[in-house]
Amino acid sequence: DEQAVGCETFRFERRPSQDCVAYQAPGVASIFGDPHIITFDGLEYTFNGMGEFVLVRAKNGAEELDVQARFQQVPRNMHGQDMATHPTSNAVRGHNSTVIEVRVRPRDAQWRYRLDVFADGRRIYFDRTSLKFQFFHGVTVYTPTYILNQSEVVIMFPSGAGVEVIENSGFMTARVYLPWGFINKTRGLFGNWSFDIIDD
Q: The pTM is what?
């Protein structure tokens, strides 16, 4: 009986609803193309720096996330040299976790795999069902089961933070997902994820 004493406690504390009530979507920032950036606050801009840059550095108590990217010049094409840059590698680390690096393979080496993945400098693969999920110190790395060419890699941390890296036509797209505990605790090219309270 839903009116019984303790029913509300059981339903909402001991066995929470699965209907998305009180769900809080994570903050999301992304980088794609040559390269276009969308910050946690929704600001869109183009960044054509060359070298290694911090996409996001976040700290919430003992929980940390550090995501860095390497930017290189876009390869010459049929129209000549393009002065734009694009991300070719992402390195990701949580609090004391194994460092995970994801690199776009050169186009002439993409006949089997699109991305190279390294855990503390050691190359890892996901081409067998038993290897789709791999666990390292403080981090889980996996590819969706339907991805056979290693073109999508997901990196998840116990804090709830995650990084998704996708290769598409030689270009890298990366998205960073952060739980609400990181609000006002981020910096880097993805900006400061802030939360404004609107007064009535």
A: 0.82
